[in-house]
Write a structure and sequence with these properties.
The chain is mostly beta strands and 71 residues long. It contains one helix and seven strands. The strands form two sheets. A five-stranded antiparallel β-sheet has the order 6-5-4-1-7, with helices on one face. The longest helix has 9 residues. The chain starts with a strand and ends with a strand.
Length: 71
């Protein structure tokens, strides 16, 4: 179960994340932020969850400026 956290995330740089045992790149753009257990789901406005990051990874990307929070 996921919970939409309200604010949006703006991915300002390409972000690498693990996907099915490999590595994928998340494109720049605006995403809804959803709490997914111990992870953060980043979902485009069409409703599907595009990728998840651990809370620590999400927080690091925000601190380093790759992700901005708005709203």
């Amino acid at each position: 179960m996921s919970t939409n956290l309200g604010p949006k995330a703006i991915v300002k740089e390409k972000i690498q994340y693990g996907s099915n045992g490999g590595c994928s790149t998340a494109p720049r753009g605006e995403y809804n932020i959803e709490a997914r257990g111990s992870c953060i789901g980043l979902c485009e406005c069409d409703g599907g969850c595009d990728f998840t990051l651990s809370f620590d990874s999400f927080q690091q990307h925000v601190v380093e400026g790759r992700i901005a929070i708005c709203g």
